[in-house]
Design goal:
With 410 residues, the chain is an alpha/beta fold. Helix content is 38%, strand content 15%. α7 links the parallel β5 and β6. The relative contact order is 0.12. The protein binds pyridoxal-5'-phosphate. This is PLP-dependent transferase.
Length: 410
């Protein structure tokens, strides 16, 4: 294979995604022939007077800018963006300091006072809180709906709706949104669709191929995969990403550091084998849990009992590494996971090489985040009951994980 064949944006048709995850956009350093990418730590890059951002011609498109200042773009971060764009079949990408920075960049760049945003009514708590508590302070109207049913979205759209933001599968209930169907509806009305695909990664679903305008990841999770760095990204058309780069990077200062970008790139190279392994384990464990007498209900897109199993089979290449389940005595199971588990670290995040678990109680989520209406609470409880144990399956043997779960559920 000639390294020159694997160039940004050209190679996706000729090479398998597993190959691209390892090789894409990487060439040995011309001077030292080092194979691992260099980390460029310089904040500044020297330039000539007619090249700078404030030259007479200005910068029409900040993504095309030469390297000037690390807050706007940096060679190591740019390489990560190019490699992420290849994996997600995007024209361009913007890496940010966290997943939240990516999401807030999308909202704050694409919406203005008077606009209307629709989001999944169950999604990562900070996204929900930002959308429902902070955006209205800027005159942005926000509707929260169960996007697993497209009719719910259709009902709230109006002339001012500019953006629909979904998480699929959503955190923590693993409900799915049909990206293809929703994007067709929104395109007719000129409304943008952004999809947070953190739970899926490009190994499982490529939202842009299905019609979404933007795909978002918390790189902190599966893409880095080792629980040792924060990062986020937004991927989409050159025009949209250029708009986001000026706001997120230049104005909000939400830029990713070069060291973090390098670590994420290293994790990302093994995304395919990692995801395949942990998805297979999660599938085995979800089936085991479903047959356990102490388990009331398992939420996992790969189970026939999942309400959207047929969509999961169409939209997901694997069913993911996150499982949520209900038990009768949620307080007891919380104590056991926190104090007795030998395999699951009791922690909030997801997507590490190590398995993690957390108990999310419905009343606590309601008080702290969702502030449900009675109908919304009933809809949430339909899947979550009094609360769920959320497992993020890691790379341990499923045999060891099941032995641990068996002890905790005794
Ligand atoms: C689905 C989803 N999106 C976004 C985020 C936010 O990412 P970060 O923690 O990198 O800001 C999270 C965090 O858990 C998440 O679960």
């Amino acid at each position: 294979m000639h390294k020159d064949d694997i160039e940004f944006g050209l190679s996706s048709e000729r090479y398998a995604p597993e190959t691209l995850a390892v090789h894409a956009a990487i060439l040995p350093d011309p001077q030292t022939r080092a194979i691992a990418p260099n980390i460029v730590m310089s904040v500044n890059h020297s330039f000539l007077p007619n090249e700078g951002a404030f030259s007479a011609q200005g910068l029409e498109d900040i993504s095309e800018s030469p390297f000037l200042y690390a807050g706007w773009t940096n060679p190591t971060v740019r390489l990560l963006e190019e490699r992420l764009a290849i994996l997600e079949h995007a024209e361009d990408g913007l890496a940010t300091a966290s997943g939240m920075a990516a999401i807030t960049a999308v909202f704050m760049s694409l919406l203005k006072a008077g606009d209307h945003l629709v989001i999944s009514d169950v999604c990562y708590a900070a996204v929900y809180e930002f959308a429902t508590q902070i955006l209205p302070q800027f005159g942005i109207e926000v509707s929260t709906v169960d996007t697993s049913c497209i009719n719910n979205v259709q009902k709230v759209l109006h002339e001012s709706t500019k953006l629909v933001h979904v998480e699929t599968p959503c955190n923590p209930l693993l409900r799915l949104t049909n990206i293809k169907e929703l994007s067709e509806l929104l395109k007719q009305r000129g409304i943008l669709l952004s999809a947070d695909s953190t739970f899926s990664t490009p190994v499982i679903t490529r939202p842009l191929d299905l019609g979404a305008d933007l795909v978002i990841h918390s790189l902190t999770k599966f893409i880095n995969g080792h629980g040792d760095v924060l990062g986020g990204c937004v991927l989409g058309s050159k025009a949209l990403i250029s708009k986001l780069r000026s706001v997120a990077g230049v104005y909000f200062g939400a830029s990713l550091s070069a060291q973090s970008a390098w670590l994420i790139m290293r994790g990302m190279e093994t995304i395919y084998p990692r995801m395949k392994t942990l998805c297979e384990s999660a599938y085995t464990i979800a089936n085991w849990l479903e047959n356990h007498p102490k388990v009331l209900r398992v939420l996992y897109p790969g189970l026939e009992s999942h309400q959207q199993f047929s969509l999961a089979k169409r939209q997901m290449a694997f069913f993911g590494g996150i499982i949520a389940f209900q038990v009768e005595d949620i307080e007891l199971i919380e104590q056991r996971f926190a104090h007795e588990s030998k395999m699951f670290y009791y922690a909030y995040s997801i997507g590490h090489q190590r398995s993690l678990a957390v108990v999310l109680k419905t009343d606590d989520l309601d008080k702290s985040t969702y502030r449900f209406s009675p109908e919304q609470k009933a809809n949430f409880c339909r899947d979550a009951g009094k609360g769920v144990v959320r497992l993020s399956i890691g790379l341990e043997s499923p045999v060891d994980l099941i032995r641990d779960l068996s002890h905790l559920l005794r």
